[in-house]
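To whoever is on call:

I kicked off a structure prediction for a single chain this morning and the downstream step that reads the tokens threw a length-mismatch warning. I double-checked the sequence; it's 694 residues and nothing unusual in it as far as I can see. Pasting both halves so you can look.
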Amino acid sequence: MALQPAALAEADTGVESSGNLTRLWVRLLRSPMTLTGLVILLVFVVLAVIAPWISPYDPSAVSDAALAPPSGSHWLGTTQNGQDILSQMLYGARASMVVGLGAAVITTVLSVGVGITAGYVGGIGDELLSLLANVFLVLPGLPLTIILAAYLPHSGSLGIILVITVTGWAWGARVLRAQTLSLRKRDFVEAARATGEKTWRIILKDILPNQMAVIAASFLGTVIFAILTQASLAFLGLADVTQWSWGTILYWAQTGSALLTGAWWWFVPAGLAIAVLGTSLSLVNFGIDEFINPRLRQAGIGTKKAQRGQVSAKRPRRVRHQGPVVRRPAATPFTQDSTDVVLDVRDLRVEYVGESGRTPAVSDVSFTLRRGEVLGIAGESGSGKSTLAYAITRLHKPPAEISRGEIHYTKPDGTTVDVLAMDEDELRGFRWEELSIVFQSAMNALNPILRIGAQIEDVIVAHRPKMDARERAARVVELLGIVGIPADRANSYPHELSGGMRQRAMIAVGLALDPEIIVMDEPTTALDVVIQRQIIEKIMELKDRLGFSVVFITHDLSLLIELSDTIAVMYGGKVVEMAPADDFYRRPQHPYSRGLLGSFPTLGGPKRELTGIIGSPPDLRRLPSGCAFAPRCPHAFDACATQVPPLLQVTGPGGGTSLAACLLHADTGAGTPADPGGPHPRNTPNELATGETR
């Protein structure tokens, strides 16, 4: 049933209400395996709790009915001293369950604390915690358990719990550390950092939920391991054999030669109880894994009526509140004559610091982004495009380091701030409020276990903590409508959406706080051309309507020409050409740009040979002297091997002005640029544009 705007406070966008939690439990219990396991486990727990009240006899009381088989008086028979085995089993369940659950809780808490902390924090903390875990991993478990138990023979259940915890926590910590290491670099975790989420919130909402299947399996496995360990220690006589447990029953059965005398009823019930309990825990584990992983859920569960309250597809009226999301007025249409600069980057240099030295990934890059402009950045893989995007947003992590340069952002009121001088709190306000990023792959950038609405809402929660649930839900619906996603899809998981819808959801995340700048790092990667067209049209529509500026990074030069106002081409970490998109297409001024354009077929006009670019991009650790493109350039001459070309202003035949880093345009001494075609041209710019070759 669709909710009206007044009921949007109850919409499920990530924070589960008590009613929704009830439905989650109902969904979990729909699994026959889970239900069977839980019923068996509940029976054991109830019997352990009420054992003193339902036991027919004192488990230690002797009688004349020695080694009596099961009968109406003694349902499970008696021992050689006439003790009732059923009573011993009931009392033994209490001790075994206390040891199993107690050891599992302490061991799991210790494993989670050490493993996730070590994996996420990294550095010296990771080294020390990993060293501690490794020390316990190499210790022989069984001998250590036997030795510790021998020194604690009369400590009861607490001693056994401590022994199991000491010998069992390291393995779980090691597994969780490895899982955390694989998760902390995932795009959805980077996205959470970019939104300004605090570390503890990222761990609780992004890292921990994605490891719940591992944690649940570790916990349930530890329960049965602890029960088996306690039974083994008791069977060997290393535990307090005066305290009744299933292991104690097996110890006295072995001491009384029950197997040799054929008294099967003395040892079978205890062994069978351990086996059945282990089976029930395995069934519960299967159900939890299916429940936690949305991909494993049965079709139809958790969708439509099983979900709590689908939100209305109609966009609700926005509610005013204290500290609202800022509404940016739509800017006037962008023109190349605009001087309203929103982002100014000067001489930016980003290096990767390693044992072998410093590797420049971005070298002396300068550009200005004007309000309402789409700046396209193109280049082959390894040219520094994504590194530049991460540097602009200050999301780069060690070993990346900004060694030089300036990044200035101009607010709508004209105030200019230095992005590189911002501390963590200032960056938290700058990201997503003023500048947001749409990551390269929506498949990885979206958290697989959270609904789409919850992930959009996370950005709002991080920056608008005072906004209530009703307002957040209304904003989520509004954002989904803006990017063309039905409102009821807020309750969908990422795997339930198509690639195009996932990418639009990422754009909705980027628009959540109406930023002035959106950095899009290859947002159409792995999408077919039809979906690419839809995404690009949506981006252009939103830009014109909301008035933000875009830094668009892609390999697809034809897409960039259609989308961008200005195009910057990067090679070897440098900008080698920057020009208005139309001038770039018709009159490319750098040989590398011509090679890129020559690699794309034309859809109309005469046929031409695709030339491409010979060779491979340079190794940034060993850049060639002079022009980095010289080894691949068909127009290179002697000076290209020794001189690094500056970025020169070039005026094309049609009057358009471009910037190109090529010695072919170097000053001839009279103050005029050289012939754009070069001294030995293979194709002139105009010929490339028309598809002619010579």
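Update from on-call: the warning came from a stale cache, not from the record. Cleared it. Sanity check on the structure: Residues 1-19, 298-329, 668-694 have pLDDT under 50 and may be disordered.
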